[in-house]
What we know:
CATH superfamily of the largest domain in chain A: Vaccinia Virus protein VP39
Number of helices of chain A: 8
Radius of gyration of chain A: 19 Å
Largest interface: A-B, 38 and 41 residues
CATH class of the largest domain in chain A: Alpha Beta
Helix content of chain A: 25-40%
Oligomer: homodimer
Structural class of chain A: alpha/beta
CATH architecture of the largest domain in chain A: 3-Layer(aba) Sandwich
Number of domains of chain A: 2
Strand content of chain A: 25-35%
Amino acid sequence: MNAIKTDYYLGDCLEVLSRFDTDSFDLIVTSPPYADRRSKTYGGIKPDQYVEWFLPRAAELLRVLKPSGTFILNIKEKAVNGERHTYVIELILEMRKQGWLWTEEFVWHKKNCYPGKWPNRFRDAWERCLQFNKTKDFNMYQEAVMVPMGDWAEKRLKHLSEVDQSRDTSKVGSGFGKNVSNWVDRKMAYPTNVLHLATETGNRNHSAVFPKTLPEWFIKLFTKEDDWVLDPFAGAGTTCQVAQVLSRNSVGIEILPQYYQLAKENIKPTQYLLFEETQDETHYTTGNR
Amino acid sequence: MNAIKTDYYLGDCLEVLSRFDTDSFDLIVTSPPYADRRSKTYGGIKPDQYVEWFLPRAAELLRVLKPSGTFILNIKEKAVNGERHTYVIELILEMRKQGWLWTEEFVWHKKNCYPGKWPNRFRDAWERCLQFNKTKDFNMYQEAVMVPMGDWAEKRLKHLSEVDQSRDTSKVGSGFGKNVSNWVDRKMAYPTNVLHLATETGNRNHSAVFPKTLPEWFIKLFTKEDDWVLDPFAGAGTTCQVAQVLSRNSVGIEILPQYYQLAKENIKPTQYLLFEETQDETHYTTGNR
DNA sequence: AGCTCTTATGAATCATTGA
DNA sequence: GTCAATGATTCATAAGAGC
C-alpha cells in the first residue's frame, strides 16, 4: 500500500517546474487564469499578450509530462470589442510548434452559465477542454468513465460523484462505488467528447474555479492509482483534492499565497498522515486506505 | 403579400456568386463539404489545402453579404493522424484578415452522434457553428428563438405526462421542443450559445446529417420575413426548404447535379407558384400565404 | 425523508463613467 | 483617445427554511 502524496508549491509554475524532473507526470489538468482575470497576481494578462505569456509555461509542461501522459487545458476566450478573441486558437497553433499534439477538444457544457442579456450575443454556456499529448501512444482508461445509458443517467451522475468521494465506498481501481455496481446490470456506454456539468455556485468558501467533477473525470480517464497528477495553476486545490480522493499522487502550484489556506481546508484532516511545511512549499502526504 | 423566391443554382459557388450583387443577403448559413469528402466534385479537398480552397469563396461571401447580415459556418475539423487538424482554426484567422469579424462560436451538441469506438478517442458529439459578421451592427432577433425556462419547464412536464418526457424537454440550452409555441405566454428565457439538436437519422437519400432544426434556428435568429438567405453549399436543399417554410427568400448553390432531384423533392409542390428551369439553374418561386 | 419556496451567487458582457 | 472601474442585465443551481 503506497502512500499518496499531495504537494503544494507557492510560486510561478514557470519557476517551480524547473525543479522537477523530465517525464514526471501522467496527467496535467488545469484551468489557467483567463485573460484580464487575476489582475493583481499574474499582472493582468492582456488578451493580446496571452499566448506570449503562456508559451514558456507550456514548454515546461511539455518537459515534465511523461511520453504516455496527457495535458488537459480548460480555457475559454473572452469577447473583446464585440468579437471572440483569437488567443486560444493561436495558442493551439503555437503549442503544436513546440511539439505538442492537439489530440482532441472536449466541450464542457456549463448547464448553469452566467446570466445576462445583450443585443448581439447570448449567454456563453461552454468552455474548451483542449487535450494535448506528447506522443500518440498515451494512456487512456475509457472504462473508468463509462456512464449508464438512458435519461436517468444524467440525474445520477452528480450523485455518482458524491458517492465516489465519500469514504465508505470501499472499492478498487475503477473508482466506482457500491451504488454504481448496482447499475452494472444495466447498460453502460462510453461517453462522448461533450461534458455536461454545472458549476458549483453554492460554495461560500471561495469561488469555485471549476466543479470537482471536471478534473475528476479527466483523472479517471487518463490515470490509474498511484499515478502522478499536476495542476500548475492549482488555485484552491480542487484538482489535488480530487486526485487524493482517487488515490493519485498530485502536485499543485499556485502563485497566490492566500490560496494556501483554502487548499489546506480542502484536504480532509482525517486523511493526513504527514504534514510538512517549509518556507515556500507545503507537503501533504496521505496514506489512502 | 410578397412572393417568396427559392432559387437553385448548379455550379461552384465561387463562380455563381460572381453574378450576384454586393450586399445582397441577410444571412448565409451553410455546411460546406468537409475535408476529404466529395472527392470527385471539389477535387477532393485535402485537409492541408482546405483553407486555401475556402478562402476565395469566403471572399465572395463577404462581398454578397449585407453589412447587417450574418454568416454561419457549420464545420468540424476531422482527426488526422491521431490529431485534430488545424484547418478550421487557421481558417478563422485567415477570414479575419479578409475583413470578417469572428463574432461568436456556437456549439451544436449532437445528441445522437455517430456510433463507434476507438482506443484513444471518444465519439465526436459536437460541431462548430462559427458566426462571422461584416460589421458589429448586425441584425439579431433574439425573441424568435426564446425557449421555456428550465425550472419551469421541468415542473410543467412532470405535472403533465410522465409518458412523453422521452425527448425534447428543451431546457434553455437552446434546443427547441415542438410545443414551445404553446408556452409562449409562460415564462420564457433566452437560449445560450449551446444548441442541443439531434441529427436526423431517417434520411435515406441524402447522407448529410444536417438537421432542419439547425438552419431553422439561425434563420429565425438572424432574419425576418422576406429577407434573403443564401446557402452556397446547398446539398439537398435543406436550408432553402426551411427558408421557404419560414417565408424567407433563399438562394441555394450546389455543384452536384444529382442533388437537383433531391432539392426538387424537398420543395413542397403545394407551394409552387412558378417553376422555371434553364440550362444551369432552377428557380422555384413560391407565394407564401 | 420527501416536498415546496426562497435566496445567494457566479472564469459573463456591454455601455457608461471617470481618470 | 486610451484605459480601467462600475452598473445593469439575467438564470440554473445549491443550500436553507418550513412543512
